[in-house]
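Predict both folds.
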Amino acid sequence: MINNDIKEKILTYLFFTAVLISFLGPIADVDFPFHLMTGEYIYQHREILKEDPFSLSGQFIESDRTTFILSQYWLSQVIFYILYSFAGPAGIIILRSTVFFLFIFLIWFSLKKRGFYYSFIISSLAIIILRPYILDRPQIFSFLFTLMLILLLERFRGNSDSAKPLFFIPPLMFLWANMHGGFVFGISIILIYTFTESLKYFISKPHLIGKSQGQRSLLIFLVTLFSAILFSYINPNSNEAVLVTLESHTNTTLLFEGIREYISPVQELGFPYSDRASLFAFWIIFGFISIIIALKTVRTRSVDITVFAAIVFSAVAAYTAVRYIPFFLALSLPLSKDYRFFRNINFAKRLRSSMILYILFLFFCVSVIWYGIRDYSNMFKIAKHLGYPEKAANFLIDNRIDANMFNNSNKGSYLIWKLYPYYKVFADTRYISEESVRDNSIISYALEDYNQPSNIGLINALSAMVPTELGKINISVSNFLVARKINKPLWKKRLDEYNIDLIVHEACVAYTLGIYPLLLRLIKDNEWVLIYLDGTALIFVRNTEKYSDIIKRFKKPKELIYDEIILETTPFVMQKSSFSTPYSSLAFALMMKGKDEDAQKMIDAALSLDDKDIVANFCSAYLSLKRKSAENHPLKEKLSFLLKNHIK
């Protein structure tokens, strides 16, 4: 019989092998390319960006927020570039896996005294929670640095006779402040510890609010933490980082509306593309920590206000936006290590020697390892997925088109990396310019004025697709007038004002796979010519003499846009997507290609998931018109359907 020590060593090695492998995998982050390109620019020019060289409007923008975005990640970006230069994608992937590995290891290490299986269970839940955050971005360093900061602070509080742990905090804050703006979270933690530890010293009621440090220890503590804050100000932005962080949660929230990072865990549950397993694991840990803190407070009639304040702060942050969930893990798990219950129950003691539990964990670790290496040939590559328009970028490089380019922000990061300095992007996920973010939405959703919601742009574009001889479909939205007569819609004015002659765009919205109204408008717009499509992106050029040569060489029939929609949506339909828009978008494309029976199946699938799906209802009405027309009814059928709760 294998003794417990050998079993636990085997399981520990297997577990951390599984941890390392679970954070490997191809680069598929939409933001990574602009970080890489910015790192290359900084490294080659030996200067931190003050203006944005990559976008049409970037060099004319002057604001604290813009300066902050351009320079806040500079050290992380340079590290990315150097690693990529020497080791290619594998260097970035190994770095990412190492950072997350250290994060999980430190959590496990801080909890292991509470119980062998307990530490593995909590660490496993943490891995599940972190799944949506396995991205190649500077924010991963903030997750790790937050945890390191907490462990250093707690190490000192556990033994205030030795100040050594504190001496690592100022250089940590200096490094953090030059790698990611999340260091502001670190400053908040330091201020919480400074205030609560001082309060405990002056009130001196350890039986109520926790044990205070001695006068000398507290003085060293305060001086070191004050120095750490000063060190964090040694960065290209100094005080702007704090101001911009506060601003991002107030008057610029419109910029981030709908972005997953900035919605609460409760809101995310309503999003069809959310990671339910990650959210479920988060609520388990959130509930568990809340319960054990409440139980200990009731039992002892006291609370360590430092621990309580830090956990509440991180919990409020995580509840406000899912981007702070890893910070909540970094704070709450180490701080809750001493909140113990059930340790004297015999059943809990017997768990350590349980063979059943050991086999279950063994199976779990082996399964994670197998799952992680199943696609080993692509593990250290850049992912081939819809987010990276690689072929479209190569087309633009091979056929230099002297034109200002409009692109959707989701493609902008990759286009920066591939096309600079030959082309400048209109927009990207950095959201450098608030005006370009607004105009990006106006153009992509084909809005006719500033007050139109995006779904009205879709409704108007769909209505324009109905042939006159077929009839008319009146689409109404409650309390909103859809039909408008405008000489030149706003989206076209914006293209003219930016002097845009080149459009690089996907047919469908990322994640939701709803059809972009711009594409529907371009189908019938003779001012624009389709010259390229590949299942990931389409390219249009303005129909003028200047581009006659490239139009002659590459002009394609616009009906191929329907094929593009099919190519973009089919993978999601085949995966049996749980939301309606992939089905309704595919239904529309099939219907416009004359495949009515297949379209009807997709319509039914979409309406079964959401009976208010705009495109599915439109397609249903359109097919009804076609059937009546085929029956030789001369009357133009007017169909309408009422869609509620679709205005953002």
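Second protein follows, with its predicted structure tokens after the sequence.
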Amino acid sequence: MSLRPPRLIEAVLTWCLRSHAAAEPIVGDLGQEFCDRAREGSRVRASIWYLWHALAIGLPYLASSGREALGSARAAGVDLLWRDVAGAVRSLARAPFFAATVVLTIAIGIGANASMFGVVDRVLLSAPPHTTEADELRLVSTEGFGSRSAVSPQAYSFPDYLAIRDNPVLVGAAAYRVPRRWTMGTGEAARRVLVQQATASYFPLLGVHPELGRFYTDEEDRPGAALTAVLSHGFWLREFGGRASVLGETLHLNRGRYTIVGVAPESFTGAELRAVDVWAPAEASVAAEGQAANLESRKSWWWRTVVRLSKGVEDEAAEARLTAAHRAGVLSAIEAGESVSRADGGQGALRLSSIVTAVGPNASTASSMSIWLGALSILVLLISCANVVNLILVRGIEERQSRAVHAALGAGAGRLAVRSMLEVGLLVGAGTAAAWLLAQWTGTAIQSLLLPELNGVRLDDHRRLAAFLAVVGIAATAAAGVVPALQAARTAPGDVLRGAGRGNSGSREGLRAALTFAQISLSLILLAGAGLAMKSLSQASAVDLGFDPEGVVTASLQPAEGVTRARRAELYWEIAERLRGAPFVEAASVASGTVPLAGWQGHPSFRISGGDSLPTVEGGGPYIYGGTEGFVEAVGMRVIAG
């Protein structure tokens, strides 16, 4: 993608030069120089260079144009405020080390919050990108199916989806599967891409519009229909260079050839926050994979469902109607002699939850982690504010005589307080600008840490981040400036000029001691939280999984067109046999799924002679992993009996 300067700084510079005749060329030349520097060197250094020159160009012109605009008609209060601003700037310029220390402290405190904001905002506060009227969208979860008593979002079969699709409490419904890795291409050029199978109703239901082309239709989402595909915006840029001519080209995915009909908008992830490369029509792609029977089986419960409620329908009423429709469908299937999944028996219930996946029964680990880190970042900000107050109070001791002179010359307590708040405001403003840059540089790393499934998807919203920084900056100014402002307002010029200004030293020292205590207390809380997190991670890494994942490697095959199922099985056996003879392989096996605790596993029903049923296993199960000879050794398990 093309480089461009930091958007907030560019917008501020444009606003400062809005009345300048050469505003557009100046901004354009500065942006071009930024791009050249970023390509030749570091984007970080280029951003710092751009910020410095934007300030050097914009602020002086804003100041001069502002004074000229006010002219003789400006109010005396505005003129006085302007003088106070200029005085605050001169005062800070005389103490550059102090100013730099405060700006850096504020930048760290606000930057930590700004870096976390993108993740917290996206996971906790916002619906998936590009969804419209998201308050009417609901994810359907199942409850009470067989041995799974917990609420599960991925526990639905395609016939179950069809049973509720046309219910009158819904405007519409769509089924989709969690993105899975498919093979794109053949031979040495083959690679894995993330493909999500979704019904044609998926995109209209969410209210998204294509960036290019169109989405596939109901007619194209039928078994046997010509295969079509929709590309994600990021995949389109990476693989096709953003060419508009991509429409009509063919993608070789797994066993089928898909015609590209459209491109989704930037950052669109679907109903959930999961990265996707390609969307494929559900029924057509399942049939193309030779799994058409799964569309009719109630034992294939790998589908998820999203619905849009009709206007005025409450969640409780919708749950009751959808549960009744689901149970009726299951009972009808049982009467027809069909086998249903997990001993449902028509007793399971459906639950609706917000499209914001961090809300409701499906709150993710990422959301819990982002709440915890958000709280820690607020603690960092509070500690930073306490540091700033202490620094300003210390500097206030040095500035007492200067304030006393101003007071003796007629400056009232209110003006001294305003002057102090202006100094803090300027420092916080500079720190907030630095925090913006810090958030831009660290936001991607935090997203990769908390939401690895979204790597490559841009989630930040510059307007929301700017609004957040403005609110935090104002709050930090108030928190860090009110105490020094009150201290400045209480300056007694006579006592200070006579050298008897020690009358308030006791209260000042008491205040500083209280602030120091607050800093230490907050720091201890921060350290305790970090210590608990490290202990939890250490304990998690020490959990006995029942097998040794170290050195275990899995692989799957995507045979060429025309290879039969029998020949495919032979290929797996031949490859396993060859691997057993390799010097770097201890054991090899052909498995029906993958290693334990990951991927697919069997979930059968067990019966014991003489017993009616087995007790429910907490957390689900029992599960079955199938493998040929050598499976136990290959995954690092040990046999404890037999």
